[in-house]
Amino acid sequence: MTELFSDGNIWLPAAVVIVIFIAMAIKIVKEYERLVVFRLGRLIAIKGPGFILIIPGIDRVKRVSLRVVTLDVPSQEVITKDNVTTNVNAVVYYRVVDPNKAIVNVEDFATATAQLSQTTLRSVAGQAELDELLSEREKLNIKIQSILDEATDPWGIKVTTVEIKDVVIPEGLQRAISRQATAERERRAVIVQAEGEKQAADKIREAASILNTEKGAFYVRLLRALPEIASQQGSLIAFPLPVELKYLFPEAPAEDKKQEGGKKSSKK
C-alpha cells in the first residue's frame, strides 16, 4: 500500500471519482422536457432544455414532459337523465404547462387526471338525456373539457380537447329508435307528397282559369293532348269536336228556364 501511494498512483482513484461525479452532475434535457430541481428538499428552479449541471447527492431532479398526452378514458356505465343504461367512452388530450405545480401540488398528475376524467364523464353523461348523447356531443365535449380544465389548473395541467368516442345503447332500444326513425321518415314523405299535390292543384286551377278566359285555348290544348293519347296502346278512339259548336245552338231564354224550373218543383 505504501508503494502504491509512493509511486504516485494515488491520483488514479481520485480521477475516477471526479469523472463519476462529473458524469452524475451533467444532465441533458430535451427540447420538450423540463427538470424540476430540488436542493436539500427545497424547490429551487426549473431547468432546461439543453446542458444542465446539478450537484450529485444534494440535488434531486424530476423530469417532466411538456408534450400533449393522449388519455383514453375506458368505457363507463352511465344511467342517463331519462333512465337509459348506456356505456360511454372518451379520449382526453392534455399537457403540462407548469412543471412546478405538476410535481409539487399532486403526487401523480397522470393518474389524478385519468381518475378525474372518468368521474367527470360519468357525471356529465348522467345529467344528459340519451338524445343529447347521440346528437349533441359537441356541447357535452365542451362542458367536460371546461370542468376538467378548471379542476386540473392547480396541478399545472391544461386540458385542450375532450371527445366522446362512442355511446353503446341496448339492442332493444336500438330497434325502438330504428322504428321511430322509420315512422318519422314516412311522416315526412306523406307531408312532402301532400304539399306537392297542393301545389299541383293550384297550378291546375290557374291553368283552367286561363283556358276558360281565352276562346279556342281549350281546343288548342286538346289538340296537343291527342298525340299523347295516340301513343298509348289500346283501342281508345278520340274524336275532338270544336268548342265553337256550342254557339250554333241558341240558349233558352231566362223565362223558359224559370218555367222549367217551376214545373219540376210542382211535379215534385
Count of alpha/pi helices: 9
Low-confidence parts lasting 5 or more residues at pLDDT below 50?
A: none
Q: Which structural class fits the helix and strand makeup?
A: alpha+beta
CATH topology of the largest domain: Tetrahydropterin Synthase, Chain A
What gap, in angstroms, lies between the N and C termini?
154 Å
Strand elements, count: 8
**CATH superfamily assignment of the largest domain?**
Band 7 domain
Helix content: 40-55%
Overall 3D form? rod-shaped
The CATH class designation of the largest domain is: Alpha Beta
Spatially, the strands of the biggest sheet line up as: 3-2-5
* Radius of gyration over all CA atoms, rounded: 45 Å
The biggest sheet, with number of strands, parallel, antiparallel or mixed sense and barrel status, is: 3 strands, antiparallel
Q: Summarize model confidence as the mean pLDDT.
A: 82
The ordered string of helix (H) and strand (E) elements is HHEEEEEEEHHHHEHHH
Task: Give the domain tally.
Answer: 3
- What is the percentage of strand-forming residues? 15-25%
Task: Summarize this structure as a short list of keywords or feature phrases.
268 residues; Tetrahydropterin Synthase, Chain A; 3 domains; 3-stranded antiparallel beta sheet; 51% helix; 24% strand; rod-shaped
